[in-house]
């Protein structure tokens, strides 16, 4: 039996996996508006990180050539458990997800993972994109989540689309009509 949505109810579209695309678009907007430079080091925008160290530029973060690993901020054990939870459909992953981190953990990871001023090959990095989001929120003074939702709603005109989850998220379904979540 096919599941149907209540046509009178307003549903939301969460950007989910394409958050990185929206973040890069938002970064481009700030570059065009000269609110920041793509060649700026993150040190310019992140208070309290050690001086006289090398930190990647926004360009390197956006192009995944910063040197940060694909698994950061996770260690191998956390990464394995996260992937296992995603594969098994563990519903407790969001509350225990180590990717949900505060700024203090982010700052510790920046300083712990010292990078050299060399050209790094491409390596996908969620952590690098999180740093861009943090910088964008710092530049605006409103924080990344508020900024991104304003960008999505007012700049892009996507009034039913947003960053985050709610009880009114529009869910997807697989070929057997099983609810796949957002």
Portion of residues in beta strands equals: under 5%
Output mean pLDDT.
81
Q: Any guess at the CATH architecture?
A: 3-Layer(aba) Sandwich
Task: Return the CATH topology.
Answer: Beta-lactamase
Apparent shape:
globular
Alpha plus pi helix count: 7
The name of the CATH superfamily reads: DD-peptidase/beta-lactamase superfamily
- Lateral strand order in the biggest sheet: 1-2
The biggest beta sheet is recorded as: 2 strands, parallel
What structural class is derived from the secondary structure elements? Answer: mainly alpha
Which CATH class applies here? Alpha Beta
Uncertain stretches: 91-99
Helix content: 40-55%
Can you tell me about this structure?
The protein is mainly α and 182 residues long. The protein has one domain: Beta-lactamase (3-Layer(aba) Sandwich). Helix content is 40%, strand content 2%. The chain has 7 helices and 2 strands. It has a two-stranded parallel ribbon with strand order 1-2. The longest helix is centred in the last third of the chain and has 15 residues, at 126-140.
């Amino acid at each position: 039996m096919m599941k149907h949505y209540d046509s009178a109810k307003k549903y939301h579209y969460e950007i989910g996996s394409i958050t990185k695309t929206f973040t890069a678009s938002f970064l481009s907007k700030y570059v065009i508006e000269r609110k920041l430079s793509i060649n700026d080091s993150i040190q310019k925008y992140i208070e309290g990180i050690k001086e006289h160290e090398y930190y990647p530029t926004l360009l390197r973060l956006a192009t995944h050539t910063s040197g940060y690993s694909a698994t950061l901020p996770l260690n191998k054990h956390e990464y394995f458990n996260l992937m296992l939870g995603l594969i098994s459909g563990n519903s407790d992953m969001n509350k225990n997800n180590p990717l949900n981190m505060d700024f203090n953990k982010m700052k510790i990871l920046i300083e712990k993972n010292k990078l050299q001023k060399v050209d790094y090959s491409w390596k996908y990095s969620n952590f690098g994109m999180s740093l861009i989001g943090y910088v964008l929120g710092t530049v605006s003074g409103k924080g990344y989540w508020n900024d991104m939702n304003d960008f999505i709603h007012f700049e892009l005109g996507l009034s039913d689309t947003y960053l985050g989850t709610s009880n009114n998220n529009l869910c997807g379904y697989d070929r057997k009509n099983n609810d796949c979540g957002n």
